[in-house]
Amino acid sequence: MSYSQKLLFVIALLSSSVAFGQLTEDPEDRRDQGKDPLKTQTVDGQPLPFSQRLRFGGGINGFRFGNPFSLGVSPVIAYQATEHLIVGIGGTYNYTRYKPYFNGVGNVGGQTYNQYGGRAFAMYEFIPSILPNLYLHGEIENSTVQQKIDGVGGSYTGQVTAPLVGVTYSQPISRRFGVNLTALYNLNYDANAGLSQYVYGSPLVIRLSFF
Fold it and tell me: Spelled out in words, what is the top-level CATH class assigned to the domain 42-210?
């Protein structure tokens, strides 16, 4: 084999190796093009399969300390519908405890609230060119609330529906996972309505989640 033939063979081998690497390279790791990976398609424009658009996680919500003490958890399944739209569903459990206190007339017994239910939500990244990862957030949460009063037998159970609107800021960790800080306003909050007042405490709902 002549020198020129050997040189052509080596060039062809290197070209084949580079081409194979481009075909087998994980699209999620191809950041050398100066752009982050797309959320619903590969860099070659092929749509990602359904399973690769799913996100799983959850978070904590309703946290208040002192009197009352409140803490909740909320598992989440989210779906990246478009590059800027995320939709999802989640479960909710929230525990709230009011300690006994004296109201100036007499002692008021402590109260315990157990809230459990589900929610559906949508998040839209509305100004990605100015503030990326900032989402308009809307959701509807429906909960069953069980109220128990110290020293009183039995319990009261009621329903609470809360339409919530606000914003979420998401700090991506990977294409399918991020840390999310959410601030929502409860459109159905009523300071004079027992369950809504005692469970939510205020119309503002702050949530920290991971998905």
Answer: mainly beta
